[in-house]
Write a structure and sequence with these properties.
The protein is of the alpha+beta class. Helix content is 25%, strand content 21%. The chain binds S-adenosylmethionine and zinc ion (6 copies).
C-alpha cells in the first residue's frame, strides 16, 4: 500500500509527540523485541502492541513506551557502577535504529526525576565509564554507602522470646519493632501470630516506577500454596513474593523457605537463614553473609520451586538471567537441573518471553489485594507461568474454571477446546476461532487477510506499519 505524503507527515508528527512524551516521563523501557534469547518477529510485535491496547489501557502509557530502552548485558565488563540502590543496569537508548546514548542507571527505580537520578554515560567502543567529580555532600553519601548496613535480622521474633506470655505485645509501625506493655510511640497491641505475616502489617511500598508492592489476594495465595503442596518440593525460594513466603513458612514449618526481596523491612521479621535483601535484575546481595546462607538453603533442599512476582513493567532479560544464576547455584550443590522448578507471575502480553521449554501458562487469573483493577478476576491480565506438572495448578474449588479432560488441565469456563489445535486455545477474553488458512486458532476479532497471508484486526495490514 502506498501512503500519501500528508499521511506520512501526520504519522511522523504523532511519533515525534510520542517520543517527546516518553522523554518527558523519563521512564526507562525495555525493548521487548530485542530480547537476548527470543526475538519475536515483526508480526508478533505488532500483535503484542494491539493486545496491550485492548487489555491494558491502565498501564498502556507506561508499557507501550518500552520500545525505546534496551538493557545490555554487563557480564564481560570489568566493573559496573553502583548507585545507593546497588549495582546499576546498563541501558541503551534508541531513536529508531540510531543509538542515542548508552548509560548506567538505577536497577531498582526507573523514575530518574523522583527516586534516583544516578546516571553515568558508557562508551561502548572504548569501554570507558564517565567519571563525575564528587560534589559537596556526595562524598558523605559515598561513605554512607560503604558503611556496614545493619539489617537487624529476626529482631521481632527475638524480642518476643524475651517477653513474658502475660505481656501485651505492642507493635510499633514507626520503629518496626515490638515492645511489652508500653512504648513511647503511638502503637497498637498485636497477636503474636500476626507478626509471622508482615505483609499484613507493613504499609506496601507503592512507587510507580520501582518497588511496586502489591500483595496477592487470599484466592491467589491459596492457589499458589496448593501448587507448592502438590509439587512436593521441599525448598521454596521466593523472589519478590513475600506473602507467599510468609504463608508457606507459617503453614509448612517442615519445608525449607527463603525470601529474597529488595524491601529490607522484612529482615526484622525473619532470620538471615531465611531472608536476604536482594536486587533481582542484577543478582546482587546487599549483605556479605546472604549468598552463603542461600547456598546452605539450596544445599539442604532436594528440589526447589522458585516463585517470583516482579514489579509491573519489569525488564525481562535481566530477570531471566538472575533466575538462571539461581538455578546454577542449586545445581552446584550436586543436584539435577530438572529438580529446579519455576513459577513466574507476569502480565499475559509478555508470555513469549517465558513460553519455551517446559513452561506453560495457566488460565488462572491472578488477583491482588487492593489493586484498582487487578483485584478483579475478570479484569486482571496477570497469569502464572510455570514448568511444574499441570496437575499442580488445581482450580477445582475456584469459581470460573472447568477441567478439560483432553488438555488435562483447568481452563476458564469460557475457553473452548479446539479439535484441530488439540488444545484449549482461548487465551484472553472471548473464544478464539480456528482459521483454516493459518491452521491455528486466532483472537476473537481477527479476520483472515489474504494480502498479509495471516489473520489480524480489520484494517491492520502489515504494510501500513512497515514504513
Ligand atoms: C508486585 S510485588 C509482589 C508481591 C507478591 N504479589 C506477594 O503477595 O507476595 C513485588 C515485590 O518485589 C520486590 N521488589 C521490587 N523490585 C525489586 C528488585 N529490583 N529486586 C528485588 N525485589 C524487588 C518488592 O519489594 C515487592 O515485595
Ligand atoms: Zn538508584
Ligand atoms: Zn516506636
Ligand atoms: Zn482442552
Ligand atoms: Zn484451533
Ligand atoms: Zn488466518
Ligand atoms: Zn492484512
Amino acid at each position: 500500500m502506498v501512503h500519501s505524503d500528508e499521511y506520512k507527515a501526520k504519522r511522523l508528527e504523532r511519533k515525534k509527540r510520542f517520543m517527546q512524551q516518553a522523554k518527558k516521563n523519563n521512564v526507562f523501557k525495555a525493548r521487548r523485541r530485542n530480547n537476548f534469547s527470543k526475538r519475536p518477529n515483526f508480526h508478533n510485535h505488532q500483535q503484542e502492541n494491539q493486545q496491550e491496547q485492548q487489555f491494558q489501557k491502565q498501564d498502556s502509557t507506561a508499557l507501550r513506551q518500552r520500545g525505546f530502552f534496551q538493557v545490555l548485558p554487563t557480564d564481560d565488563l570489568p566493573q559496573v557502577p553502583q548507585c545507593s540502590h546497588g549495582p546499576c543496569l546498563l541501558f541503551e537508548k534508541k531513536n529508531g535504529p540510531e543509538v542515542e546514548e548508552t548509560f548506567f542507571a538505577c536497577a531498582i527505580y526507573r523514575n530518574q526525576a523522583e527516586f534516583c537520578d544516578f546516571k553515568l554515560t558508557f562508551n561502548k567502543e572504548t569501554g570507558e565509564i564517565e567519571v563525575k567529580e564528587a560534589v559537596e555532600g556526595e562524598e558523605d553519601a559515598e561513605k554512607k554507602k560503604k558503611k556496614k548496613k545493619i539489617f537487624g535480622y529476626n529482631r521481632i521474633p527475638k524480642a518476643l522470646t524475651e517477653m513474658s506470655p502475660t505481656d501485651t505485645v505492642l507493635y510499633c509501625k514507626t520503629c518496626i519493632n515490638v515492645f511489652p506493655n508500653k512504648h513511647e510511640c503511638v502503637c497498637e497491641p498485636v497477636e503474636r501470630e500476626a507478626l509471622e505475616r508482615p505483609t499484613h502489617l507493613l504499609p506496601p511500598v507503592n512507587e510507580q516506577h520501582g518497588e511496586s508492592q502489591f500483595f496477592f489476594s487470599t484466592e491467589t495465595l491459596d492457589v499458589i500454596t496448593k501448587a507448592v503442596e502438590k509439587s512436593k518440593v521441599d525448598g521454596i525460594l521466593c523472589i519478590g513474593a513475600p506473602r507467599i513466603f510468609e504463608n508457606i513458612r507459617a503453614l509448612h514449618p517442615e519445608k525449607n523457605v527463603f525470601l529474597l526481596d529488595y524491601d529490607k523491612r522484612f529482615a526484622k521479621f525473619f532470620p538471615s537463614k531465611q531472608y536476604a535483601q536482594y536486587s533481582m535484575l542484577v543478582d546482587h546481595f546487599f549483605d556479605k553473609i546472604a549468598e552463603p546462607k542461600l547456598m546452605e538453603f539450596f544445599d539442604k533442599s532436594k528440589s526447589i520451586l522458585m516463585i517470583t512476582d516482579p514489579p509491573f513493567g519489569v525488564f525481562m532479560e535481566p530477570l531471566l538471567k538472575s533466575i538462571e544464576k539461581m538455578k546454577k547455584r542449586f545445581v552446584s550443590t550436586g543436584k539435577e537441573e530438572t529438580l529446579f522448578y519455576s513459577m513466574i507471575v507476569l502480565p499475559i502480553y509478555i508470555r513469549k518471553y517465558v513460553l519455551h521449554g517446559n513452561f506453560w501458562m495457566s488460565d488462572y487469573r491472578v488477583t491482588y489485594e487492593g489493586h484498582k483493577l487487578y483485584q478483579h478476576s475478570e479484569k486482571t491480565i496477570v497469569r502464572l507461568f510455570t514448568d511444574l506438572p499441570v496437575e499442580c495448578i488445581d482450580l477445582k474449588n475456584v469459581a470460573g474454571y472447568k477441567f478439560c479432560e483432553v488438555c488435562d488441565r483447568y481452563v476458564t469456563e469460557r475457553n473452548v477446546h479446539c479439535d484441530r489445535c488439540q488444545a484449549c486455545t482461548s487465551v484472553e477474553q472471548g473464544k478464539w476461532n480456528h482459521c483454516e488458512k493459518c491452521d491455528k486458532c486466532v483472537k476473537p476479532r481477527y479476520v483472515h487477510c489474504a494480502q498479509c497471508a495471516r489473520c489480524h484486526l480489520y484494517g491492520r495490514c502489515i504494510q501500513k506499519h512497515d514504513e
